[in-house]
Amino acid sequence: MTAQAALIPGLERIRARFLDMLVDRLTEIETLCEEPSTASLRQSQQILHKIAGSAGTLGLQDLGETARVCETRIIEFLDTGNMELSQVYQSLGDFAEIAEDLLTEDS
């Protein structure tokens, strides 16, 4: 956690709730990716958008940045077709790995 984040009262409690939610969101993304479709990728993108915004505020920059990269790649894939689906899934795999590492070290 960043020094600035540590100064905000109650932030550790919010961070703990965020990490609990992260477990559910990670499972949700994994389920959505089992059968890729435009709808499932949009839902994944929306989840990643929320994670990216919250993670940075809570001092989890790596998670937030990786979520933002995934979100951007999904948007690029869906809106322009300039991204391969395999690249989207590679980014999602990177995100899942960072999230799982974070959850493991926080346990």
Describe this structure in words.
The chain has 107 residues and is an all-alpha fold. The chain has one domain (11-106): Four Helix Bundle (Hemerythrin (Met), subunit A) (Up-down Bundle), CATH 1.20.120.160. It is 84% helix and 0% strand. It has helices at residues 3-7, 11-33, 38-57, 61-80, 85-106. α2 (11-33) runs antiparallel to α5 (85-106). The radius of gyration is 14 Å and the shape is elongated.
How is this fold's topology laid out?
Elements: H1 3-7, H2 11-33, H3 38-57, H4 61-80, H5 85-106
Helix pairs in contact: 2-3, 2-5, 3-4, 4-5
Please name the fourth-level CATH homologous superfamily.
HPT domain
Rg value: 14 Å
| Approximate strand percentage | under 5%
Main β-sheet description: none
Described by the principal axes of the CA atoms, the overall outline is elongated
Sketch the topology as an H/E string, one letter per element.
HHHHH
Helix proportion of residues, in percent?
over 70%
What is the structural class?
A: mainly alpha
Count of the domains: 1
Give me the CATH architecture, please.
Up-down Bundle
CATH hierarchy, class: Mainly Alpha
| Poorly predicted residue ranges | none
Report how far the terminal alpha carbons are from each other: 15 Å
What is the fold-level CATH name, i.e. the topology? Four Helix Bundle (Hemerythrin (Met), subunit A)
Average pLDDT figure? 89
The total count of helices amounts to: 5
Total strands: the figure is: 0
